[in-house]
Amino acid sequence: MAYLALDLGAGSGRAIVGTIVDRRICLDEIHRFENKPVQLGNTLHWNFLSLFENIKYGIFLAIKKGYNLKGIAVDTWGVDFGLIDKAGHLVSNPVTYRDHRTLGMANEATQNISKEYLYESTGIQQMEINTIFQLYSLHSKGDPSLCSTDKLLFTPDLINYFLTGVAANEYTIASTSQLLNAKTQQWDEYIFRQLELPFSVMEKIIKPGEIIGSLSKTIEEETGAGHAKVFAVGSHDTASAIGAIPAECDNWAFLSSGTWSLLGLLTDEPILTSEAMLNDFTNEGGVNGKILFMRNITGLWLLQQLIAEWEKKDEKKYSYEYLLSEAIQAEAYQSIVNPDDVSFSNPSSMSTAIESYCANTNQATPITKGEFVRCVMESLALKYHFVAKKLKECSSRKIDQLYVVGGGSQNDLLNQYTADALNVVVSTGMTESTAIGNILQQAIADKTVKDWNEGHEIIKNSFILKSYYPKDNQKWLEIAENVKHLF
């Protein structure tokens, strides 16, 4: 039984085939491609045409390699969308959440609707990148693209539309928008009315496990995939990744570690308290009827930008192994930054932004590459420490174990620092958790796998988890106390 996961992150995309044999899942990465935004005039776009061409090529390569695909499903990052006109055409290339069009939009929008109502309704952490403020920006600036729009489709929905011709908004990705009512799991019409946003462009909400449709004739001819169904899964990549965690205890939390870090836990109902709102926690849709109660944190973005800057300047490649080994040799706790500080959101030079932050907060300024990397690793671990503390307070839950998924789960230094700073056991080993969750949801929908309980048994049979045990927690607590004013 073969299923294809089309897993798109904010930096790259992959086409990964999963086969389930003898209660084990095997993964085969068929195609990997770059996802690089393009600055066009004053607007930062996603290159959707390139992304879609690579998606089709990934399907083609899977068929060429001999896989008889039973299913295909897409997952991506959240909040971003494309607009479709009445003729079914893409109005314009989708805009990335890192574009500056939403600057000031949150404050402007909340003149017409209160922050309290937005949180009580949607349960979503207020961030200017959210769909609500992207859409409000188009409306408030009289953008003509909105006038010709018939459908708003989030990134995975947009891909599914051009694969199948079927328009729908999948629940988990829709929940990132700050337009979906967290309790009813339907669009909140009051928000649309208060902000004068076009409600008619929103599509029907579908849930993970539903069949979206079959590939269009054109896509069938291009790819050779004639019989594959296109499934709705947790199309927000975080939902699929967390759904795959085979946790064996009750008091566990998750950390999705990549460009963004998402630290949280699973709940049966959204937590919509004022305390949760004030601490910037979000309630996003998960698979299997769960809610992801979590905090969005700027993650390895800082390190990724440093590496890109150094490689461009020095005209050479720097491996993570080399940079982390340099970090280990650097002096500890000399420079701590708050990764969520606005100065790190999209600076022209990340090294300069870090230097300025440290100078402005009367700290030693990193000089060597090892010092910069150690600064980022320690700062992330401390950020997780403070967020985990608030997470326990807002949920009234203990945390004894932290499951780390995503690309950052391979970062041994950060994993150990996280175990130390949080004083919990950190478990890793599922680097491709998003693809695993995507594939298992397809198999469950296709009735190849009975349910998520059986799916988690399959995962346990297939992957060996690695654990990091806390050390020197008292020292981390002392450091946390000294730098808490930064966070």
Walk me through what this model shows.
This protein is α/β, with parallel strands linked by helices and 487 residues long. The chain is 39% helix and 20% strand. The chain has 19 helices and 19 strands. Helix 15 packs across helix 16 and helix 16 (412-422) packs across helix 19 (473-483). The mean pLDDT is 96.
Unreliable segments of 5+ consecutive residues? none
Order of the strands making up the biggest sheet? 15-16-14-13-17-18-19
Query: Proportion of β residues?
Result: 15-25%
Structural category? alpha/beta
Total DSSP E strands: 19
What level of helicity do the residues show?
A: 25-40%
Q: Taking all residues together, what is the mean pLDDT?
A: 96
Radius of gyration: 22 Å
Largest sheet: 7 strands, mixed
**In whole angstroms, how far apart are the ends?**
48 Å
Total of helices: 19
| Cα shape | globular
Quick rundown:
By secondary structure, this protein is of the alpha/beta class. The chain is 39% helix and 20% strand.
Keywords:
487 residues, alpha/beta, seven-stranded mixed β-sheet, six-stranded mixed β-sheet, 19 helices, 39% helix, globular
Chart the SSEs and their pairings.
Layout: E1 2-8, E2 12-21, E3 24-34, E4 38-40, E5 43-45, H1 48-64, E6 69-75, E7 81-84, H2 105-109, H3 115-122, H4 131-140, H5 144-147, E8 151-154, H6 155-164, E9 169-170, H7 171-174, H8 189-195, E10 205-206, E11 211-214, H9 217-223, E12 229-231, H10 237-243, E13 252-257, E14 260-267, H11 274-278, E15 282-285, E16 291-298, H12 301-314, H13 320-329, H14 350-360, H15 369-395, E17 401-405, H16 412-422, E18 425-428, H17 433-445, H18 452-462, E19 466-468, H19 473-483
Parallel strand pairs: 1-6, 6-12, 9-10, 13-17, 17-18
Antiparallel strand pairs: 1-2, 2-3, 4-5, 7-8, 11-12, 13-14, 14-16, 15-16, 18-19
